[in-house]
Amino acid sequence: MRTIKIFDTTLRDGEQAPSCSMHLNEKIEIALALERLRVDVIEAGFAIASKGDFESIQKICEVVKGSTICSLARAVPKDIDAAYESLRNAKNARIHTFLATSPIHMQYKLKMAPEKVLATIGDMVRYAKKYLPDVEFSAEDAMRSEKEFLARALEAAIAAGATTVNVPDTVGYTTPMEMVEMLKYLQNNVRGIENVTVSVHCHNDLGLGVANSLAAISAGAGQIECTINGLGERAGNAAMEEIVMGIHTRKTYYGCETNIDTTQIYRSSRLVYNLLGLPPPINKAIVGANAFAHEAGIHQHGVLANRETYEIMTPQSIGLLNNEMVFGKHSGRHAVEKRLTELGYALSKEEVDELFDRFKQLADKKKTINDHDLEALANRTVVDAPAAFKLDRFTVSCGNYVTSSAVVRLNHEEKLLEEVAIGDGPIDAAYNAIDKMIPAPAHILEDYSIFSVTEGNDALGEVIVKIKCGDKNVIGRGLSTDIIEASIMAYVNGLNRLL
Ligand SMILES: CC(=O)SCCNC(=O)CCNC(=O)[C@H](O)C(C)(C)COP(=O)(O)OP(=O)(O)OC[C@H]1O[C@@H](n2cnc3c(N)ncnc32)[C@H](O)[C@@H]1OP(=O)(O)O
Ligand SMILES: CC(C)C(=O)C(=O)O
Question: What ligand is nearest to the CA atom of residue 51?
Answer without folding.
Answer: 1
